[in-house]
């Protein structure tokens, strides 16, 4: 199988502090493959979680593509690769700091991914764009929506959004701040796959590193109309486990 094209911001942010190192929007790899995506009926972008280096990001995009192919989805699937392999993320004593840096970098990447979506829609206005985010990837998506919501013409620019093991908080779909943005920017639906059995989200919740992750018990309050959730039972927090229990798409 040929490589999965990807949008990348690797090396744009400091892995120890989250500081912005480069102001570029993004780079595309392989560039010629993105030319071929123009005028596609639709495409799906997979956004990985914390502790993924470039190889990890590629692996997640391949996983997503293979799973969606099995489910009969024949449109292009591409990856978004960002600096999520923050320093010390694999060591318990540094976990809190590494996660905080990861969250800060994920938030900043909202502008990068948002820019790509605007640029791509400009050259290919009829292409429907769907986003899939695993774990910290949910924060990248939320920040992308925040960025896109700043312009009226971006209303409905995203076709749909899919969360897996989301680390954003459970009040997001019903909050005054984000609810309206999600309702406006996303055309069809936001689908959250949540798992009360997810050991990583459970740990992050217990430690109060993430207060009530959306991926653990689903949304609280009265979520917006376009928000839906699905209880799933993945083996563990890894994206491979969530992909394995995904049974319909889009």
Automatic annotation (TrEMBL):
- Give the matching Pfam families: DUF726
Recorded hits in Gene3D superfamilies, A to Z, give: alpha/beta hydrolase (3.40.50.1820)
Q: What is its main location?
A: membrane
Q: Which UniProt keywords apply?
A: Membrane, Transmembrane, Transmembrane helix
The family database entries (InterPro entries) matched by this protein are listed as: AB_hydrolase_fold, DUF726
Q: How does it sit in the membrane?
A: Multi-pass membrane protein
Name of the protein: DUF726 domain-containing protein
* Native organism: Nitrosopumilus maritimus (strain SCM1)
